[in-house]
Design goal:
The complex is a heterodimer of chains A (209) and B (273). By secondary structure, chain A is mostly helical. Chain A is built from 7 helices and no strands. Chain A has one domain. Helices cover 86% and strands 0% of the residues of chain A. Chain A is globular and about 45 Å long. The termini of chain A are far apart. Chain B has 273 residues and is an all-alpha fold. In chain B, 82% of the residues lie in helices and 0% in strands. Classes of the chains: A mainly alpha (209), B mainly alpha (273). Chains A and B meet through helix 3 and helix 6 of A and helix 2 and helix 3 of B.
C-alpha cells in the first residue's frame, strides 16, 4: 500500500513553485508535466475501480482496462488545449510530451515505491519501456491531431480514430509485457522502435499550423 | 482460433496489411488526395494493430476468453477512419451539373440508410445473443453501422448498383438475419445446415462484389471501384462476425483481398486526379 496522493504532492509542489518563475515554452512544459501526473493518479483510481466492479485481477485490469482509461484521460487535456488555445504545432507537441512525461514519471515513482528499486537492470528496462511508451503514444496522438487539423478534417470520426490508435498501441504494449519471456522483450522494444520511427516524421514536422 | 491454419491466415492478413500501409504511405508522399490517403493509412494501421493484438493474445493466453476485447477498439478505429476516408473521397468527387456548373443534387438515400441501420441493429442483436458481450458488441456495431451507411450512401449516390442488385442484396440481408435467428431454436444438425446456407449466401455476395470490382476497374471511374471494394469489405466483415472456425478463416482471407482491392482503387483514384 502506497499513499499515491502524498507522493504526488511531494513531487508536484517544487514543480508548482517553479511554474511561477519560468516563462514561455518552459512554463507550458512544466504545467503539462503537472497535468500528466494528476491524470495518472485519476487514471489509477478509475482503472482500479473499473477493474474491481468487473471482478478483474490487477494483471487483467492493466491489460484490458488501463489502456482505455489512461489514453482517454491523457487525451482530454490535449483536446482542451487544442480546442481552446489553438496552439502552433510546436506548442501542441510540447504539451503532449509534457503530459506523457509527467504521466510516466509519476507511474514509475509509484511502481518503484511499491515494488522496490533494488535491481538496476529492471529499473532501466521499466524506465525505458513505460517512459518511452507514454511519451510515444502521446506524441503519436498529438501528431495525428495536428495532421487532422492541418488537412481541415477535424471530424469526430477522425479524432476518435486517432485516440483509438493510441489505445491499441498502449494495449499491445501492456499485453506483451504482462507475460515473462520473449514477448516481454518485444514489448519493451516496441516503444523504443516506434520512438525511432517517429523521430523521422517528427524532425520534418512543421512547427507552425 | 488456436489451430496452425488460423495462425498462418492471421499472419498473412497482418503481412498484407503491412504491405497496404507501405503502399498507402507512398500515396501520401504523392501529395494528391491527402485527406483520403491519410485517413486510409490510419485505418489500415488500426486494423494491423488489432490483428497483432489478437495474434499476441492467442499466443500468450491460449484458450482464455478476453474479459474485454481491446483489439475491438482497433477495429472500431479502422471502421471510423475508413468511413472518414470514404466521406472525404465522395465529397471531393461531387458530380457537377453540365448546365449550371453547380454540384448535382444528391439522390435520396433515406430508404437504404434506414435499412442499413436496421440490418446492423439485427446483427448486433445476434452478436449479443452469441457472445453476451453487450458493451463491446454495441460499440463495434455502432462503428460498423456508420461505415455501412457511408458505403451504402456512396454506392447509391453514384448509381453504382442497379435496382435489381439492390433488391437482391436486401433480400440476402433479410435471409441471413432470418436464417441465423431460426438457428437458435433448432437441433444441432439443422443449425449446421443453416450455418452452411448462410455462409454460401455470404460467399456468393463476396464473389459478386469481386466480379463487379473487376468489371468496374475496366469501365467505370476509380471512385466506383473504391466504393465496390468497400461494399465487398463490409460484406466480408459481416461474414467474419457471423461465422467461426473455417468459415471465419475464409472470410478473414477474403477481407485481406478486399483491402488490397481498396488500395488498388485508391491508387488509381490518386493517380488519375
Amino acid at each position: 500500500m502506497i499513499y499515491a496522493e502524498n507522493i504526488l504532492i511531494c513531487i508536484a509542489v517544487p514543480l508548482f513553485i517553479s511554474l511561477i518563475f519560468v516563462k514561455g515554452n518552459a512554463r507550458h512544459f512544466v504545467a503539462s508535466f503537472l497535468v500528466g501526473m494528476g491524470v495518472c493518479l485519476i487514471a489509477a483510481y478509475i482503472s482500479g475501480f473499473t477493474g474491481l466492479v468487473n471482478g478483474l485481477n490487477e494483471n487483467d485490469t492493466a491489460i484490458f482496462i488501463s489502456p482505455v482509461i489512461e489514453e482517454t484521460l491523457k487525451f482530454l487535456p490535449l483536446l482542451y488545449i487544442l480546442v481552446l488555445f489553438a496552439p502552433e504545432n510546436d506548442d501542441l507537441l510540447l504539451c503532449s510530451l509534457g503530459i506523457g512525461a509527467g504521466f510516466a514519471t509519476f507511474e514509475n515513482c509509484c511502481h518503484i515505491l511499491s515494488a522496490g528499486a533494488e535491481s538496476l537492470t529492471y529499473i532501466l528496462i521499466r524506465g525505458l519501456g513505460v517512459g518511452v511508451m507514454h511519451i510515444v503514444s502521446m506524441l503519436m496522438l498529438a501528431m495525428g491531431m495536428a495532421v487532422i487539423r492541418h488537412i481541415r478534417a477535424f471530424s469526430v470520426s477522425g479524432i476518435i480514430g486517432a485516440l483509438a490508435l493510441s489505445m491499441m498501441f498502449h494495449a499491445l504494449y501492456n499485453l506483451l509485457v504482462s507475460e515473462p519471456g520473449i514477448s516481454s522483450y518485444i514489448g519493451y522494444v516496441l516503444p523504443l522502435v516506434t520512438a525511432v520511427l517517429l523521430y523521422i516524421p517528427y524532425r520534418k514536422f512543421p512547427s507552425k499550423n | 482460433m488456436t489451430s496452425g491454419l488460423a495462425y498462418i491466415i492471421a499472419f498473412i492478413h497482418t503481412a498484407v496489411l503491412a504491405y497496404i500501409i507501405f503502399g498507402s504511405v507512398r500515396l501520401i508522399k504523392n501529395g494528391k488526395k491527402l485527406l483520403v490517403t491519410v485517413f486510409f493509412t490510419f485505418s489500415m494501421v488500426s486494423f494491423m494493430l488489432s490483428g497483432l493484438y489478437w495474434i499476441a493474445y492467442d499466443l500468450l493466453r491460449p484458450e482464455t476468453r478476453m474479459p474485454f476485447a481491446a483489439n475491438e477498439i482497433g477495429e472500431c478505429a479502422g471502421f471510423l477512419l475508413l468511413a472518414a476516408a470514404v466521406s472525404a473521397m465522395t465529397d471531393s468527387n461531387k458530380e457537377v451539373n453540365d448546365n449550371s456548373g453547380l454540384p448535382q443534387k444528391a439522390q435520396s438515400v433515406l430508404k437504404e440508410s434506414i435499412f442499413s441501420v436496421l440490418f446492423t441493429t439485427a446483427n448486433v442483436a445476434l452478436w449479443i445473443a452469441w457472445s453476451g458481450e453487450w458493451f463491446e458488441d454495441i460499440m463495434v456495431g455502432g462503428a460498423f453501422g456508420y461505415l455501412l451507411c457511408t458505403a451504402v450512401r456512396a454506392l447509391k449516390q453514384r448509381n453504382i448498383l442497379s435496382k435489381k442488385e439492390w433488391l437482391i442484396i436486401g433480400g440476402a440481408c433479410v435471409s441471413l438475419i432470418v436464417l441465423q435467428t431460426i438457428s437458435f431454436f433448432v437441433t444441432k444438425n439443422i443449425h449446421t445446415a443453416l450455418d452452411i446456407a448462410c455462409f454460401s449466401l455470404l460467399a456468393a455476395g463476396m464473389l459478386h462484389f469481386i466480379v463487379r470490382w473487376i468489371k468496374s476497374r475496366k469501365n467505370a471511374a476509380p471512385i466506383s471501384s473504391f466504393c465496390l471494394a468497400l461494399a465487398g469489405f463490409s460484406w466480408t466483415i459481416i461474414a467474419m462476425y457471423m461465422n467461426s472456425g473455417i468459415f471465419y478463416m475464409i472470410a478473414l482471407a477474403v477481407s485481406a483481398m478486399m483491402m488490397i482491392l481498396l488500395l488498388l482503387s485508391l491508387r488509381k483514384e490518386v493517380m488519375t486526379s
